[in-house]
Amino acid sequence: MTYLYLFSIAIIVLSFFKSKEKTFEGFKVAWKKFKKILPSFTKMLIAISIILYLIPGSVISKYLGGSNLVTGTFLGSIFGSITILPGFVAFPLSSVLVDKGVSYTAVASFTTTLMLVGIITFPVEKEYFGWKLSLTRNIVSYIICIIISIAVGIFYGELII
Amino acid sequence: MSREKIINISLVSVYFLFLIYSYISDFQVGIEIGGNFFDFVKSMLMILPIAFILIGLFEVWVDRKTVEKYFGEASGFRGYVWAIILSSTTVGGAYVAFPVAHALHKKGAKLSIVLTYIGSSALTRIPMTIFEASFLGLKFSIIRLLVSIPLVLISSVFIGNLFKNKIRA
């Protein structure tokens, strides 16, 4: 994070020295783009705040903990698709799940869908790439996540084929 | 004002009125939802302004030819490799990757390479992967990375070809 700030400041200073006008033009472009996407961001944040209230970590842990491999993996993928959690919350939660006896397969389906499938980020994605492409990307990503979970299951010996 | 705009504004107002009401009357449900909202606003405010400024500077300084050379139709396999390397350094989440991907696409990056960037920024971000490995074990992260990167590549090429002529940047 600190590196990002240092890097960005360096870039801004460099840009400023090369051309003041172009730098301000860049700021203007940034502001215009930000303003354009702000409504979608607001909608996304509202959805996140409500979903996180309805499905807190304890609920995820309760449902994944009490299920068998297939149900757990399926539920994990559903929770992962509809919620959004920063890594510093998601991975500690996952390691608690593993300690509780939840399979690595189910944990993989939860963490990968969390990252790759975004129902909540859909309004933002749609704004940039249109709903058809966004929908296709999310469906294909969901399938990818299931394949990854199956692979994890095989490597951990939880899934025998 | 369009109909969509009116609906949006009313939804957002209802939401904030609900939060204000909850804070005044000490309604726990609303207070918790409000807490979640401001937590996320805070973490986004740490990243988004910087991300958008960098995108803005990218738009004015980097010319189309450079983007086309590294990420365009003629970049070949190297374009995908660059996209994965670039994505592994992305911070934040999908909400940062989308505007960056869009900026690249607008400057002439090939759609399937842009999709590779989005997919792999979800899966290969270095700080996130380190975090994952420390909680779930290195074995878990390695299996996940090795399986996910080829899948992201294949699917991006597939979706990219499907939408090639339908999406205009």
Molecular structure report:
The complex is a heterodimer of chains A (161) and B (169). Chain A contains seven helices and no strands. The longest helix of chain A has 35 residues. Chain A is elongated. The relative contact order of chain A is 0.11. In chain A, α2 crosses α7. Chain B has 169 residues and is mainly α. Helices cover 83% and strands 0% of the residues of chain B. Chain B has eight helices and no strands. In chain B, α2 packs parallel to α5 and α6 runs antiparallel to α8. The longest helix of chain B is centred in the first third of the chain and has 34 residues. Chain B is globular, with a radius of gyration of 20 Å.
Number of beta strands of chain A: 0
Helix fraction of chain A by DSSP (H/I, runs of at least 4): over 70%
Low-confidence stretches of chain A: none
Summarize the biggest pleated sheet of chain A.
none
Q: State the secondary-structure class of chain A.
A: mainly alpha
First-residue to last-residue Cα separation of chain A:
43 Å
| Chains forming the largest contact | A-B, 66 and 64 residues
Q: Give the strand content of chain B.
A: under 5%
Number of helices of chain B: 8
Report the biggest beta sheet of chain B as strand number plus sense, adding barrel if it closes.
Answer: none
Oligomer: heterodimer
Which radius of gyration of chain A do the C-alpha atoms yield?
20 Å
